[in-house]
Each structure stands twice: as structure tokens, then as C-alpha cells.
Amino acid sequence: MSLVMDRASAQSGLGIGAIVLIVFALFVLLCLAGIGFGSTWISFDKVAHVIFGGGEKSERLVVLQLRMPRVMAAAIAGAAIAFSGYLLQRITRNELASPGVLGVVDGAALGVVLFLALYSNESNALTVPVAWQPLAAAIGALAAITLVFILSGRQASSAIRLILFGIAVAAVAKALTTIFMLIGPIYQAAQAARWLAGSVNAIGWGEIQIMAWALLPVVAIAGLLARELPPADLDDVSSRSIGLNLPVYRVAVFAVAALLTAIAVAFVGGVGFIGLIAPHLARLLVGRARFAGIVTSMMLGAMMLVGADLLVRVAFAPTEVPAGTVTAIVGAPYFLFLLMRKDKTNG
Amino acid sequence: MASTMALPNRRSRLGASKATVYAGLIGLMALSMLMSLTLGYKIYSLDQVFGALFAHDGSETAVVIAGLRLPRALIAPLTGAALGMAGVIVQTLSRNRIASPDTLGLNGGASLAVVVGSVVFGVQSLAGLSLAAAFGAFITSIVVFGVAASAGGLSPLKIVLVGVTFASLSHALVEVILTSNEAQLQQLLFWLSGAFVDRPISLFYNGLPVVLVGAVLGIGLSRALDALQADDSTAAGLGVPLAAVRGVAFLAVALLTGAAVSMAGPVAFVGLVVPHAARRLVGLRHIHQLPAAALFGAVYTTLADVAARFVIYPVEAPVGAITAVVGAVVLLVLLARRAA
Description:
- The complex is a heterodimer of chains A (about 350) and B (about 350).
- Chain A is an all-alpha fold and about 350 residues long.
- In chain A, about 75% of the residues lie in helices and about 0% in strands.
- Chain A is globular.
- The longest helix of chain B has about 35 residues, at about 60-95.
- Chain B has one domain (about 20-35, about 45-335): ABC transporter involved in vitamin B12 uptake, BtuC, CATH 1.10.3470.10.
- Helices cover about 75% and strands about 0% of the residues of chain B.
- At the A-B interface, helix 7 and helix 14 of A face helix 6 and helix 14 of B.
């Protein structure tokens, strides 16, 4: 019922603006909750106090060094993955497309595991700066999506082929990841496995800085590309007639989407389903409006990861269940629902 | 016999008669099991192997061969046979050549059931856990087929997406249960690694009857399965009780997959690869497809297990990782060949 209302309100610009504002307010609230909740509760006004430079020393430590990095990392990574999913769903014109099913996530994970295997010494310390890690993830993700493209061949415009090959490439990457985890000196296999499942519990300000700086230019390019996103029902021929070289444009969008996911995955691991669900929910909320769609997708993606991290901290403390498990447990049924619903409406 | 099934009963594509194929597969199976007994971190002679098996003298060599190598050499082929047959039945039921216990998430469901049974319900006995695995595979197969069918038919895309989603769902649930119960982690990793190392021989005796029941059910259904390869109305026209056949076939798949998972954990993509080889060797009739898949699956899995000992020698790779790489590449080739 609310969906009908949302769709109706999505018609007017005012409605969209209001919805985006409400989502933003919820996002801020969730981030504050993410900082406030934990082994000790810190009230919102104290959190605000600390952020603006006040507060007691112990509170400052907990908020600034322990909780804020987690929330920030989750928000940034979630937003990047959601943006990536938005681009992929729009460019393939298929709401089942996502960084996960197109092999990008597992490709990036393979890149990172290879990087860790190649550049670790006996005591498991990295021999090169961690800043190179997103580059490794990006190479892995780009390799995976390139492979998907090549294999799909001339029908690369068919979303179904892309998705099927994406799943197969993901399976290859996953298998290789397992093998390299064993070959390499990453003997804390449990640690690596936890990272693969996706979690933000060990992240610090340094990594967040690297992630943010790496994402900044990519998000800017993605934003520019998104302005050119063609109407959803435009095919190759008619897009050429309006002066858009769709094949080239499509490759660029895929590459940027892969990079967005890769950089996030490099730091928070293989978080599943955010890239699939956030853009989908955003479309339910704000319709096909482009700018609002992107912003809402990103905020929803951020909220999903911040919320998942909050949930595992509160519900499973003191053990560290990876946040990625929550997004998968919530996301998988939603995806199945989407699969069933899609064909009922499309006949 | 004259059931007018238009299935080719000619000689297989490779041109060999079926008797030759079976003889060859049985020979290969014996050979691969011998390799499994002799090759490894230490390489033993045939004399030592026979000595250990038939005249156990209590020496270290004999203990290693009879206690460590023998269980692997028995469990690996049994697991492969079970997964191969399960793959054949699943591909027929879904009329989908890229379906398998893995792509449908059945392995995941079985693993989840093992973990839940052990952690939540405190099941300890091997028999109980095998039962849990079969139960998990059964429930998952019904849910996956139900969801895929209600999502508008069992197209390759649908079935793979539903299966992959279920696999990641059960993986996440397993992860949650394991991380929040770290005490049992060690014991459960045993089930989840997908390997034949350090498996007690009791697992083999435990799995054998389950696999046999599954195989008998499958072969008993072979005529009906032949008919199901066409479409539902053809099968119904030939007098096949569709619902009953599907039900029993699900049960067979669940028993076979459950037995395999309970013995070795989820060994990836065996059920995807093996049926293709079996069809190439003996054609489409299930009365031949199923035994050929069992034999080929046994050879394939045993050889993969031997390879696992040497890929990153002296460390052992999990056999599941090796079959996953092979299977994923086969999946790519299958997709590339027949535009999905």
C-alpha cells in the first residue's frame, strides 16, 4: 500500500525531495545509533558533543577511535557498492544485475587475496603499503568483468548472458581464492575468511582515508557518466541515432561500476546483496528520477551496511559475526522475492 | 521397451560399445583407488599396500595405509558416485544442463542442516548428522524448485540465480552459527571444508547404505526419468505419474546429496560435471546414464583427491577447491557452447 503511495508521490518533484530528506534523516539517525550503541551506551547528545570537540576522554576514545571508524567505513563502502549496483541495473536494464552476480565482488576478493599472498612476509605483515590493496582489488574486479564481457561475446547487451557468465566467473574466482588462501602465507585463514564474508570491525582511520581518496575520483566520473544514462528502453540502434555510442558508453559504465565495488570490497570484504537491493528500494521510493535515485541508493546502501554492522555488534556480542552475513540473510530472501515477482508481472 | 521413446539408443558418441565403456570405467576406478592408496606425501609400493591391507603387521606404514589412506580411497569414490547420480537426476528434473546439487544450493542446504543439527540440537552421532544432511538437501530441493517454478519456469537463469542465492543464504547462516559458537568450530570445519582427509572409515559404512538406497530409487525410476526429459505433457501421455515420480526423485537426490555431504562436506561442482561426461559416454537413457555417472563420478573424485595431495605439495589442498576450479571452467564452457 505504501508502495503505491510512494509511486504516486514520486511523480511530483516535491514528493521526491521530501522522500530524499526523510531517507537522509533516517541515515543520520542510524549513524548516530551506530556510534551510540555498543558495549556501553553513549547517548546521542554525548555523541554530538564528542563530534564537536567536547566530551570526556574515555568517551572520546570510544567514539572517535572505536565506533566512528566502523560507522564511517560501513557508510562509505555501502554507498559505493549501492552506486555500483545502480549503474549496473540501469545499464543492463535488468533489476537482477548487481556487482555480486556479475563477478565483480569475487574478482576483487581474488585480487586482494592474491595481493596479500604475494606481498606478505613470514610474520604475516605486508611488505608494501596497504594503500596498494584497493589497486589489487580493482585489477581483480576489472579482470573479472572483462572476462564476463569477452565470454558473453557479441550478445554482451543481453543481461541474461552477462549474469549467467558473471555467476560462472564468480565461481572460478571463488575457487581460486580458496586455493590462494591456502598457498599464500595468509595462515590466519579464519581472519581471511572473516574478511571475505565482509566486516568492518578491524578498520581504522588510515584505511578509511585511503578508501575515501580512492573513491573520490571514481564517484566523480561515475556521476558524470550517470548523467548520460539513456532512457531505460533505448536499444543500441536508436541510441546511435541520438548520438550516443552505446557500446563504448556501456563499457565505461561497467568499468566504473566495477571500480566502485572493488575499492569498497578491498576494505570491507565481500559484502553481498547491497548492490542489488539498495538501487531497487531506491527505485520504489523515488521512481526513475536519476539524481534522486543515485543519492537515495547510496544512502540506503550506507544504511544497510551500517545497520548490519550495528546488528552484529548488538545481537552477537562479544563474538564478531561478519556484517556481510546479515546483508546476505536479509538480501537473499528479498532477491528470491524479486525473482518470483518479476516474472509474475512480466508474464 | 517399445515405449516409443525417441531417445537414441545407439552407440555412444565416442563410438565404444556400452560394455567397453563400463569395463573401462571400472578399470579406471580400480586404478584411481590404487593411486589413492599408494600416492601422497609418502609414496608406497603396491607390496606395502597389499601388505597393510591383507597382512596388517602393526608397522607405521601399515597404520598409515590402513588408517589414513584406505578411508580416503573408499570415501572419495562413494562421494563422487553419489554426487554424479544426484547430478543426473537433478538435470533431468529441471531439464537444465547446468543444474547440479551445487548450482541448486542443495550442498549448502545439507551443510546448513548439519551445522544446525550439531550446534542447535546437539546431534553427535554420524548417522544423525547424515540424516540431517539428507533432510537439509531434501527441504532445499523442494524450496528451490518451488521458487524457481513459481518464478515462471525453470530457465537456466532462474534456476542458477535461485540456487546461487540459496547457497549464499545457507553460507551466511552457517557463518553466523559458527562464529557465535566458537567452541564447536573445529568439529564443524571438518564438515564444511569439502575434503576427504582425516575422515574416519565409519563414515563410509554409514554412507554406503544411504547411497545404495538413493541409487536403487534412481535406477528404479529410470524409465520415468527418460520420459521426463521431454516435456510434462509427453511424460504424462506416456502414463508417468508426474507428482509421484518427482517426489521419489527428490528423495533420491536428497539421499545421494546428503550422504555425499555427510561423508566429505560440500565437494563443489562434481554433480555438474559428471552427468555431461556420462551422457557423452552412454547416451541419454537413465538406465545407463546413472551407472555411468556413478562410475565416472567415482573416478573423477578419486583422481581429484589424488591431485589435491600434489597441487601445493607438501601441503594438501582441499579437494573441493580443485573440483570447484574444474567445475567452474566446465560451467563457463557449457554456457559458452549453448547460448543460455
